[in-house]
Amino acid sequence: MAKRPTNKRKAPRSQTKKRYSGFKKRAQKQLVEKYSLAKCKNCGEVKLNHHICPVCGSYADRKPLDKGKDVIKKIKA
């Protein structure tokens, strides 16, 4: 197994941060592609496509879940 080269000098912080920011951008892009994330039309939070928004409880311009009321009472009634 080949040995990996080591740095002759310590890398500057700016170089490390640039490398990490590129990684972070790629990771976010992969998440969006893999899980198809979208912004909620009502509150603007990130949510899964074709799912109810966990923050405001809206789905496709409707309000199926009222976050203030008890959901169990709605199901039983």
3D architecture notes:
- With 77 residues, the protein is mainly alpha-helical.
- It has a domain at 27-76.
- 38% of the residues lie in helices and 8% in strands.
- It contains 2 helices and 2 strands, in the order αββα.
- The protein has helices at residues 13-35, 71-76, and strands at 37-39, 46-48.
- The protein has a two-stranded antiparallel sheet with strand order 1-2.
- The longest helix is centred in the first third of the chain and has 23 residues, at 13-35.
- The protein starts with 12 loop residues before the first helix and ends with a helix.
| Major sheet details | 2 strands, antiparallel
The computed structural class is: mainly alpha
Shape: elongated
Strand order, main sheet: write it out: 1-2
Order of helices and strands: HEEH
Low-confidence stretches: none
- Radius of gyration, CA atoms, in whole angstroms: 22 Å
Helix content: 25-40%
Total count of strands: 2
Report, as a whole number of angstroms, the end-to-end distance. Answer: 68 Å
What's the average pLDDT?
78
- Approximately how much beta-strand content do the residues carry? 5-15%
Instruction: Please work out how many helical segments DSSP would assign.
Output: 2
